[in-house]
Design goal:
Blueprint: H1 2-15, E1 18-21, E2 24-27, H2 30-46, H3 56-73, H4 84-107, E3 110-116, E4 123-129, H5 130-149, H6 158-164
Antiparallel strand pairs: 1-2, 3-4
Length: 165
């Protein structure tokens, strides 16, 4: 959801040089409005909630793309004054940022489950992020596959029972 807001906000920044403040309408340049959005994104990335599952590599890609966007918007009063090449480049950078942040946000979503514990009627609540859950499930699958594919011969079976007589 936040990435959609970021997309709309960045498109708004590129399309209009006006932004609302508490005292009314204040004219901002495209660059100033973008820098406000950039600061909000970087703040969310440094926090522990919105983009908590973003990888270091992806965070660096987002920071670099935002910096490239800042350079392209420096001194620009209106996005309409940009030439087609810069506008397309800016749009591509924006899509990169949105794609990474959308994935990081969805991976950071908390999922809680109530389940009964074995041997008791008490229920416990466990919460984990979508990314943590995916990693745990993959590790569980690997552990089960390793057990099933192991060469350990089980000592119980018809051959063992017959050999004891």
């Amino acid at each position: 959801m936040r990435a959609v807001v970021v997309t709309v906000a960045l498109i708004g920044v590129l399309a209009s040089p006006l932004a609302l403040t508490g005292e009314g309408t204040t004219k901002l340049s495209t660059f100033e409005a973008f820098e406000k959005e950039k600061a909000a994104i970087l703040k969310d990335m440094s926090g522990e909630t919105v983009y908590s599952e973003i990888s270091h590599k992806d965070a660096e890609l987002v920071r670099a793309a935002l910096d490239r966007m800042s350079v392209k918007l420096t001194g620009v009063e209106n996005a309409g004054s940009l030439d087609q090449v810069k506008l397309v480049s800016l749009y591509n950078e924006q899509n990169l940022v949105n794609a990474i942040l959308t994935m990081a946000e969805s991976d950071s979503r908390q999922v809680c489950r109530r389940r009964g514990r074995l041997g008791t009627n008490f229920k416990t609540t466990t919460c984990e992020t979508v990314a943590e859950r995916r990693e745990r499930q993959a590790a569980d699958r690997l552990a089960i596959d390793k057990i099933l594919k192991s060469d350990i011969k089980h000592p119980i079976g018809p051959a063992v029972i017959g050999a004891r007589r």
